[in-house]
Amino acid sequence: MKLLEDRIRKDGVVLGADVLKVDNFLNHQVDPDLMLAVGKEFYNQFKDSKITKILTVESSGIAPALATAMSFHVPLVFARKHKSLTLKDDMFTATVYSFTKQTSNTIAIAKKFLSADDKVLIIDDFLANGQAVQGLTDIIKQAGAETVGAGIVIEKTFQKGRKMFDDQGVRVVSLARIAAFEDGQVVFADEQDA
Ligand code: 5GP
């Protein structure tokens, strides 16, 4: 998605070897027009899949997930993160290792918001090693629901997530695909292929 790649070039800041900071438009300040465009694009990609629910993890996934839910006119449910959780019967839970924070969290979704007849689209801001999306697919499985696919705003193709979901047969659509960071600059996968 050119609009997104242009914005990443303009406002993204490369931190170290493998982290991109995008707090100008996605992770802290949020650009609503860009989010609307992101939501519409995910709608175009998944509109034939009879999606009934959008799932994400708080907090960075919520902005693009809400924009997507608005295009589909279906509910958004965001998993809540807990450092430690007394397991409750009314919650589906999964353990997720955070790539950026290097800690494990339990993510939880109330059982009343996910059921066996749901067809679910997962939305997240980044795909790195795939832990967040994997946690959500685990929860969807616990509910007996179907994971239709995952819509990712920014994928880093050099980390493990993409291969993991390709191997599992989970459809992943990413709007910007970063192949590498070189000298503090972003190299997109489509530039590398060209
Ligand atoms: P994964 O679970 O795929 O390893 O990592 C995805 C999660 O980690 C995302 O939800 C996002 O919050 C965070 N994350 C991973 N890589 C980056 C990055 O380069 N920049 C930012 N801002 N967040 C990231």
UniProtKB/TrEMBL annotation:
Record has Ribonucleoprotein as a keyword: no
Pathway: Purine metabolism; XMP biosynthesis via salvage pathway; XMP from xanthine: step 1/1
Subcellular location: Cytoplasm
Main localization, broad class: cytoplasm
Residues binding xanthine: 20, 27, 156
Residues that, per the record, bind 5-phospho-alpha-D-ribose 1-diphosphate: 128-132
Listed InterPro entries: PRTase-like, PRTase_dom, Pur/Pyrimidine_PRTase, Xanthine_PRibTrfase
Reaction(s) catalysed by this chain's protein: XMP + diphosphate = xanthine + 5-phospho-alpha-D-ribose 1-diphosphate
Domain Phosphoribosyltransferase: start-end pairs: 44-167
Protein's recorded name: Xanthine phosphoribosyltransferase
PANTHER family membership: HYPOXANTHINE/GUANINE PHOSPHORIBOSYLTRANSFERASE (PTHR43864), XANTHINE PHOSPHORIBOSYLTRANSFERASE (PTHR43864:SF1)
Keyword DNA repair on entry: no
GO terms for biological process, alphabetical: purine ribonucleoside salvage; xanthine metabolic process; XMP salvage
Taxonomic lineage from the root: Bacteria, Bacillati, Bacillota, Bacilli, Lactobacillales
Subunit structure: Homodimer.
Superkingdom of this protein's organism: Bacteria
Originating organism: Lacticaseibacillus sharpeae JCM 1186 = DSM 20505
Pfam family, one: Pribosyltran
GO molecular function, one term: xanthine phosphoribosyltransferase activity
